[in-house]
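@channel sequence for tomorrow's demo:
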Amino acid sequence: MPISRRTVSGWALAGLASSLLPGPSAFADAAKYAPIRKGDGQFGSYTQPWFLESFLEFADDIEEAAGNGKRFALMWELEGCPYCRETHLVNFAVPEINEYVRANFEIVQLDLKGSREVVNFDGTPMKERDLARLNRVRHTPTIQFFPETVDELKGKIGKDMEIARMPGYLRPFHFYTYFQFVREKAYTHTNFHKYLSARVANYKAEGKQLPSW
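structure tokens (generated this afternoon):
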């Protein structure tokens, strides 16, 4: 039997305010969507149990994502980054966001200053930090989104390989909408700002309020 590329991590319990006493279902939900605290302080101190545990060979990862009907993304973080922490403790803690991203994306988490060896889409080995420099990733968190197949990357290098980039922290609704923007391939005919404006306009036209999260 081939070695699995994904390891199953246990769910971490979320911190709950001592002044509140939620029922069992609230505790279950908190645990279900809680991030995992990294004991060594890497990756902004948190990770998601469902992030792809890969061999850091991105051509294989993008094929695996496509085989699972998902899109592939690299999420760049940095130890001590407050907005990386916010992304995990706030954005990914929203059930709708967590479930949507989890169902539609394979994400590999990388360290902006990391020394692990990765194999870029074209087969070139390099350190994480060198890939960050090549891709012009300077801030965290940054999420790079890529095409559906390796063939679409031929002849491209660095930042030109991505089809979209989430540069920095976005509040939950904008964060969620960005993933929808990529999943729906809206980047082929519009930019994110126009897509976001259209989504907001649709809510208003239907008499709905934007999600409170």
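heads up for whoever presents: Residues 35-170 form a domain with the Glutaredoxin fold (CATH 3.40.30.10).
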